[in-house]
Amino acid sequence: MRSLVGISCCVKNFGPNTLANHAASDACVRAVEQCADAVPVLLPALGATADIETLLSRLDGILLTGSRSMVAPVHYGGPPLPDGMKEDGARDATTLPLIRAAVARGMPVLAICRGLQELNVALGGTLHQCLRDVPGRMDHSAPQTDDLALKFAKAHGVRLRLGGMLHRLAECGHVEVNSLHQQGIDRLAGGLVVEAEAADGTIESVCWTAGRGFVLGVQWHPEADFATDPISRRIFEVFGAAVRGTAMREMALAAD
Protein backbone atom coordinates (compact mmCIF):
# COMPACT_ATOMS: atom_id res chain seq x y z
CA MET A 1 0.00 0.00 0.00
CA ARG A 2 1.38 3.42 -1.00
CA SER A 3 2.03 6.22 1.45
CA LEU A 4 -0.28 9.22 1.81
CA VAL A 5 1.04 12.79 1.51
CA GLY A 6 -1.16 15.67 2.62
CA ILE A 7 -0.94 18.75 0.37
CA SER A 8 -1.88 22.14 1.81
CA CYS A 9 -4.65 24.07 0.07
CA CYS A 10 -5.42 27.78 -0.19
CA VAL A 11 -8.86 29.37 -0.12
CA LYS A 12 -9.41 30.94 -3.54
CA ASN A 13 -12.50 32.53 -5.05
CA PHE A 14 -13.21 31.48 -8.62
CA GLY A 15 -15.95 30.07 -10.83
CA PRO A 16 -19.07 31.76 -12.23
CA ASN A 17 -20.14 33.02 -8.79
CA THR A 18 -16.61 33.51 -7.38
CA LEU A 19 -17.34 31.01 -4.65
CA ALA A 20 -14.66 30.05 -2.16
CA ASN A 21 -12.71 26.95 -3.17
CA HIS A 22 -9.94 24.93 -1.53
CA ALA A 23 -7.19 24.72 -4.15
CA ALA A 24 -3.68 23.34 -4.62
CA SER A 25 -1.32 23.33 -7.58
CA ASP A 26 -1.71 20.48 -10.06
CA ALA A 27 2.08 20.47 -10.42
CA CYS A 28 2.48 19.66 -6.71
CA VAL A 29 -0.12 16.91 -6.92
CA ARG A 30 1.62 15.29 -9.87
CA ALA A 31 5.09 15.65 -8.36
CA VAL A 32 3.91 13.78 -5.26
CA GLU A 33 2.24 11.05 -7.31
CA GLN A 34 4.84 10.61 -10.03
CA CYS A 35 8.11 11.50 -8.33
CA ALA A 36 7.64 10.99 -4.58
CA ASP A 37 5.64 7.81 -5.43
CA ALA A 38 2.91 8.61 -2.91
CA VAL A 39 -0.84 9.19 -3.01
CA PRO A 40 -1.63 12.94 -2.84
CA VAL A 41 -4.38 14.01 -0.43
CA LEU A 42 -5.59 17.62 -0.53
CA LEU A 43 -5.90 19.26 2.90
CA PRO A 44 -8.62 21.94 2.99
CA ALA A 45 -7.86 25.20 4.77
CA LEU A 46 -10.38 24.71 7.56
CA GLY A 47 -8.59 26.87 10.08
CA ALA A 48 -9.63 26.42 13.70
CA THR A 49 -11.89 23.46 12.89
CA ALA A 50 -9.16 21.42 11.20
CA ASP A 51 -8.63 18.17 13.09
CA ILE A 52 -4.84 18.15 12.99
CA GLU A 53 -4.31 15.04 15.10
CA THR A 54 -6.72 12.95 13.02
CA LEU A 55 -5.03 14.11 9.82
CA LEU A 56 -1.54 13.31 11.06
CA SER A 57 -2.61 9.91 12.35
CA ARG A 58 -3.54 8.94 8.79
CA LEU A 59 -0.89 10.74 6.74
CA ASP A 60 2.75 9.79 6.16
CA GLY A 61 4.07 13.19 5.03
CA ILE A 62 3.16 16.84 4.44
CA LEU A 63 3.78 19.03 1.40
CA LEU A 64 3.35 22.77 1.98
CA THR A 65 2.65 24.48 -1.33
CA GLY A 66 3.42 27.91 -2.70
CA SER A 67 0.71 30.55 -3.06
CA ARG A 68 0.09 34.12 -4.14
CA SER A 69 -1.09 34.90 -0.62
CA MET A 70 1.27 36.01 2.13
CA VAL A 71 1.71 34.74 5.68
CA ALA A 72 -0.14 37.29 7.83
CA PRO A 73 2.21 39.56 9.86
CA VAL A 74 0.17 38.99 13.02
CA HIS A 75 1.83 35.57 13.28
CA TYR A 76 5.37 36.97 13.53
CA GLY A 77 4.95 40.49 14.87
CA GLY A 78 5.46 42.28 11.57
CA PRO A 79 3.90 45.51 10.28
CA PRO A 80 0.80 45.37 8.04
CA LEU A 81 1.37 44.08 4.54
CA PRO A 82 1.84 46.64 1.76
CA ASP A 83 -1.18 47.41 -0.40
CA GLY A 84 -1.86 44.77 -3.01
CA MET A 85 -0.53 41.85 -0.95
CA LYS A 86 -3.20 39.34 0.01
CA GLU A 87 -3.50 37.21 3.14
CA ASP A 88 -5.18 33.83 3.57
CA GLY A 89 -6.15 33.60 7.22
CA ALA A 90 -7.79 30.20 6.87
CA ARG A 91 -4.62 28.72 5.41
CA ASP A 92 -2.43 30.27 8.12
CA ALA A 93 -4.75 28.92 10.81
CA THR A 94 -4.45 25.45 9.29
CA THR A 95 -0.81 25.16 8.26
CA LEU A 96 0.95 26.80 11.21
CA PRO A 97 -0.40 24.36 13.85
CA LEU A 98 -0.11 21.53 11.30
CA ILE A 99 3.60 22.26 10.85
CA ARG A 100 4.30 22.36 14.58
CA ALA A 101 2.46 19.09 15.15
CA ALA A 102 4.07 17.34 12.17
CA VAL A 103 7.60 18.41 13.17
CA ALA A 104 6.97 17.29 16.75
CA ARG A 105 5.90 13.85 15.47
CA GLY A 106 8.95 13.53 13.22
CA MET A 107 6.73 13.43 10.12
CA PRO A 108 8.48 14.27 6.82
CA VAL A 109 7.72 17.81 5.62
CA LEU A 110 8.61 19.39 2.29
CA ALA A 111 7.91 23.14 2.26
CA ILE A 112 7.82 25.11 -1.00
CA CYS A 113 7.91 28.91 -1.36
CA ARG A 114 5.07 30.14 0.94
CA GLY A 115 5.49 26.80 2.68
CA LEU A 116 9.10 27.70 3.54
CA GLN A 117 7.91 30.98 5.02
CA GLU A 118 5.17 29.17 6.99
CA LEU A 119 7.74 26.70 8.30
CA ASN A 120 9.96 29.51 9.57
CA VAL A 121 7.07 31.40 11.18
CA ALA A 122 5.52 28.27 12.73
CA LEU A 123 8.82 27.50 14.46
CA GLY A 124 9.36 31.03 15.75
CA GLY A 125 11.07 32.96 12.96
CA THR A 126 10.12 36.19 11.17
CA LEU A 127 9.78 37.39 7.58
CA HIS A 128 10.70 40.33 5.41
CA GLN A 129 7.40 41.74 4.14
CA CYS A 130 8.68 42.55 0.66
CA LEU A 131 12.23 41.69 -0.36
CA ARG A 132 12.48 44.28 -3.11
CA ASP A 133 12.06 46.97 -0.44
CA VAL A 134 14.95 45.63 1.66
CA PRO A 135 18.24 47.48 0.98
CA GLY A 136 20.70 45.29 -0.91
CA ARG A 137 18.13 42.70 -1.97
CA MET A 138 17.05 42.04 -5.52
CA ASP A 139 13.46 41.65 -6.69
CA HIS A 140 12.58 37.97 -6.21
CA SER A 141 8.97 38.27 -7.39
CA ALA A 142 7.47 36.44 -10.35
CA PRO A 143 8.04 37.78 -13.86
CA GLN A 144 5.04 39.75 -15.11
CA THR A 145 4.02 37.41 -17.93
CA ASP A 146 1.29 34.90 -18.71
CA ASP A 147 3.83 32.62 -20.37
CA LEU A 148 4.31 29.87 -17.77
CA ALA A 149 7.60 28.74 -19.31
CA LEU A 150 9.00 32.21 -18.76
CA LYS A 151 7.39 32.63 -15.34
CA PHE A 152 8.98 29.44 -14.01
CA ALA A 153 12.29 29.74 -15.89
CA LYS A 154 15.55 29.76 -13.92
CA ALA A 155 16.01 33.26 -12.53
CA HIS A 156 19.19 33.24 -10.42
CA GLY A 157 21.70 31.00 -8.74
CA VAL A 158 21.91 29.85 -5.11
CA ARG A 159 24.93 28.75 -3.08
CA LEU A 160 24.50 25.41 -1.32
CA ARG A 161 25.83 24.78 2.18
CA LEU A 162 28.90 22.56 1.98
CA GLY A 163 27.96 19.10 3.24
CA GLY A 164 24.28 19.96 3.52
CA MET A 165 21.34 17.95 2.24
CA LEU A 166 21.03 19.86 -1.04
CA HIS A 167 24.78 19.88 -1.57
CA ARG A 168 24.76 16.08 -1.33
CA LEU A 169 21.79 15.81 -3.70
CA ALA A 170 23.25 18.17 -6.28
CA GLU A 171 26.85 17.00 -5.90
CA CYS A 172 27.88 20.62 -6.49
CA GLY A 173 27.89 23.93 -4.64
CA HIS A 174 25.65 26.01 -6.89
CA VAL A 175 22.34 25.50 -8.67
CA GLU A 176 20.02 27.71 -10.72
CA VAL A 177 16.44 28.19 -9.48
CA ASN A 178 13.21 29.94 -10.45
CA SER A 179 11.94 32.82 -8.30
CA LEU A 180 8.30 33.74 -7.65
CA HIS A 181 8.13 35.19 -4.14
CA GLN A 182 7.89 38.55 -2.41
CA GLN A 183 8.26 37.62 1.25
CA GLY A 184 11.44 36.00 2.54
CA ILE A 185 13.02 34.83 5.77
CA ASP A 186 14.30 37.58 8.07
CA ARG A 187 15.12 36.00 11.45
CA LEU A 188 15.68 32.27 11.11
CA ALA A 189 13.72 30.09 13.53
CA GLY A 190 15.68 28.14 16.11
CA GLY A 191 16.39 24.59 14.98
CA LEU A 192 16.47 25.52 11.30
CA VAL A 193 19.75 25.56 9.38
CA VAL A 194 20.36 27.41 6.12
CA GLU A 195 20.78 25.03 3.19
CA ALA A 196 21.08 27.62 0.41
CA GLU A 197 21.41 31.37 -0.11
CA ALA A 198 21.04 33.72 -3.07
CA ALA A 199 23.88 36.11 -3.91
CA ASP A 200 22.03 38.96 -2.14
CA GLY A 201 21.89 37.00 1.13
CA THR A 202 18.27 35.86 0.84
CA ILE A 203 17.77 32.47 2.49
CA GLU A 204 16.63 30.09 -0.25
CA SER A 205 16.48 26.77 1.60
CA VAL A 206 16.45 25.45 5.16
CA CYS A 207 16.38 22.12 6.95
CA TRP A 208 15.42 21.13 10.50
CA THR A 209 18.16 19.78 12.73
CA ALA A 210 16.65 20.19 16.20
CA GLY A 211 14.71 16.93 16.13
CA ARG A 212 13.99 13.75 14.26
CA GLY A 213 12.45 13.47 10.84
CA PHE A 214 12.98 14.89 7.35
CA VAL A 215 12.14 18.60 7.08
CA LEU A 216 13.28 20.58 4.03
CA GLY A 217 12.12 23.97 2.82
CA VAL A 218 12.97 25.60 -0.52
CA GLN A 219 12.06 29.10 -1.62
CA TRP A 220 11.80 28.13 -5.28
CA HIS A 221 9.34 25.80 -7.06
CA PRO A 222 10.85 22.36 -7.82
CA GLU A 223 7.41 21.05 -8.78
CA ALA A 224 7.52 23.28 -11.87
CA ASP A 225 10.29 21.28 -13.57
CA PHE A 226 10.68 17.96 -11.72
CA ALA A 227 10.25 16.13 -15.04
CA THR A 228 13.27 17.85 -16.62
CA ASP A 229 15.50 19.17 -13.82
CA PRO A 230 17.56 16.53 -11.95
CA ILE A 231 17.81 18.50 -8.68
CA SER A 232 14.09 19.24 -8.59
CA ARG A 233 13.39 15.55 -9.17
CA ARG A 234 15.83 14.48 -6.45
CA ILE A 235 14.13 16.76 -3.93
CA PHE A 236 10.83 14.95 -4.42
CA GLU A 237 12.52 11.55 -4.56
CA VAL A 238 14.26 11.97 -1.19
CA PHE A 239 11.05 13.36 0.30
CA GLY A 240 9.20 10.28 -1.00
CA ALA A 241 11.85 7.98 0.47
CA ALA A 242 11.48 9.70 3.85
CA VAL A 243 7.70 9.36 3.65
CA ARG A 244 7.90 5.66 2.87
CA GLY A 245 10.40 5.14 5.68
CA THR A 246 8.04 6.77 8.18
CA ALA A 247 5.11 4.70 6.95
CA MET A 248 7.09 1.47 7.34
CA ARG A 249 8.15 2.40 10.87
CA GLU A 250 4.54 3.17 11.83
CA MET A 251 3.37 -0.18 10.43
CA ALA A 252 6.09 -1.99 12.36
CA LEU A 253 5.08 -0.28 15.59
CA ALA A 254 1.42 -1.13 14.96
CA ALA A 255 2.33 -4.77 14.36
CA ASP A 256 4.17 -4.90 17.69
Question: How would you describe the overall organization of this protein?
Answer:
The protein has one domain: Rossmann fold (3-Layer(aba) Sandwich). The two termini are 19 Å apart. It has seven helices and 13 strands. β11 (192-198) and β12 (203-208) form a beta hairpin. The strands form three sheets. The protein has a nine-stranded mixed sheet, sandwiched between helices. The chain has a two-stranded antiparallel ribbon with strand order 2-3. The mean pLDDT is 91. With 256 residues, it is an alpha/beta fold.
CATH topology: Rossmann fold
Biggest sheet, spatial arrangement of strands: 4-1-5-6-13-12-11-8-9
Percent of residues in beta strands? 15-25%
- How does the major sheet shape up? 9 strands, mixed
Q: Which radius of gyration do the C-alpha atoms yield?
A: 17 Å
List the uncertain runs: none
* Number of extended strands: 13
Topology:
Layout: E1 4-8, E2 10-14, E3 19-23, H1 26-34, E4 39-43, H2 52-58, E5 61-64, H3 89-105, E6 109-112, H4 114-122, E7 127-128, H5 148-151, E8 156-160, H6 165-170, E9 174-177, E10 184-185, E11 192-198, E12 203-208, E13 215-218, H7 230-255
Helix pairs in contact: 3-4
List key phrases describing it.
256 residues, alpha/beta, Rossmann fold, 9-stranded mixed beta sheet, 7 helices, 13 strands, globular
Concise synopsis of the structure shown:
The protein is α/β, with parallel strands linked by helices. Helices cover 30% and strands 23% of the residues. It has a nine-stranded mixed β-sheet with strand order 4-1-5-6-13-12-11-8-9, with helices on both faces. It has a two-stranded antiparallel ribbon with strand order 2-3. Strands 7-10 form a two-stranded antiparallel sheet.
